[in-house]
């Protein structure tokens, strides 16, 4: 009997398990099993199951992205908001640590998970040269410097390192890379562009595989991809032609025929889609007078239907509002045109109720068809299911040690070395000046940018516009790197703006003069004269008139330097090197050779602009691709 009873108990237990599983699979919604929550189901089945459960308000909520400063977990819960972002400088509090970021992101995520359907948010941030909003993150060279390296593998490794630092803070989505093709250096965002040459920009989309992970062999090219919880969703931006506006005026009009658009501004997007980029951000700019945020032909007909982009399209910050001039002149019209053009998610980013109510009205009035909303939701959910967030929605401390790690700083130092471009090395008949001797008895370091970490990082660093000084974040200034590189008994004298008598009286072996541009971002960086920040020009004249000098220019783009070149013994373009100034010393003192090549034409005067490689009247100071080389000497 006992034996029988044992078997029957086992059978009962087995039958209970089967029936419970069967019940879960067939239980009506809301009572246990939900197909969309089952990771064993195909993504398309999960998308279909979830979409049929969603109300119109929940769908429109998923199309809404809000800045962290404008939301609470309750808003995320009640409106089923799709995404939260940190705009430039939007941090939990100044100098917040990784744990603080994780706690903040998780508090928002828990709000979303407590919504009716529990759809997790994705949290976006501009990690455009490392995790640059975050205190003590590794700050890599800005894109213009990476373009000078001509090294797609390096850039891919930078993407992987950046993904780890972003994940260290519990974030899973970055608004990078910017694949603009800057055609006029007067544009305030030219340093966010890898090059004026579309083929260089195209090669640098390798960063997407670093950020998101490599699509595995046999994987579907062109479909959005995310390769694990050490990777982040990427965003190719700003679609399309952002770098081609008239006179480089930010957010202005790009006048170009279809061939120019396809051959200059579009190639980066072909490659980004092949790399599996998950999202694409629309540009504020216009093409031949039509706002990109309202351009159905380019966003839907071409990007979605011709290029078969299957991720989601996101607006820029208040990009919908700026469809009209002035912005917000007719918000209903703006929402109708933006969503109608094919934008799937809107970076509102403040007033969610106005956006949600406006779009709801347009759908209910059948001005915006439900099919457009469903296209947006299918794309957003496809990306979200792919991230694994439904299974593992909360950030944890797995990658905490990655933020600002020495390994990443060494990688940034390598990138700095490879990004520097040697433009002059001694006067014509004279012997080369570089590499410099480490065992000189006394050297002078001068200039506004020698001892300023904020200046060498540039815009989009800790704050939107970047900042000044050595307390902004962690890193090594160029002065600090020089002091570490030279021999112990070499005296290093620093004077930011010395007078010639001082220079002459000290019998310096040589001087290193570090000057450049002050930090800026977006429209604040638009310039008509592209001059060095004062008193950079005077410092060059005074110091180089008194002693042998190497001038290092820290700038986001070529600047007006031609009148001073004859005064210099050597000239180096350092771009915006970021936190690891050691990379500058590495090549100045010969531990490594100079290898960088100009990613942009260096003009003589601004009235030549725009002037790009291949133009008929091409008369640069230094041409695109120019860069002198030196052999490593081991820094003797
Ligand atoms: C900005 C920029 C865009 C950035 C976004 C979020 O205005 O145009 O590049 O990703 O807003 O910060």
Automatic annotation (TrEMBL):
The keyword Hydrolase applies. Pfam families: Glyco_hydro_3, Glyco_hydro_3_C. It comes from Rhodamnia argentea. Keywords: Glycosidase, Hydrolase, Signal. Residues 420-629 form the Glycoside hydrolase family 3 C-terminal domain. InterPro entries: Cellulose_Degrad_GH3 (IPR051915), GH (IPR017853), Glyco_hydro_3_C (IPR002772), Glyco_hydro_3_C_sf (IPR036881), Glyco_hydro_3_N (IPR001764), Glyco_hydro_3_N_sf (IPR036962). It comes from the Eukaryota. The keyword Hydrolase applies. GO terms for molecular function: beta-glucosidase activity. This is Beta-glucosidase BoGH3B-like. Residues 55-383 form the Glycoside hydrolase family 3 N-terminal domain. Residues 1-23 form the signal peptide. GO terms for biological process: glucan catabolic process. Gene3D superfamilies: Glycoside hydrolase family 3 C-terminal domain (3.40.50.1700), Glycoside hydrolase, family 3, N-terminal domain (3.20.20.300).
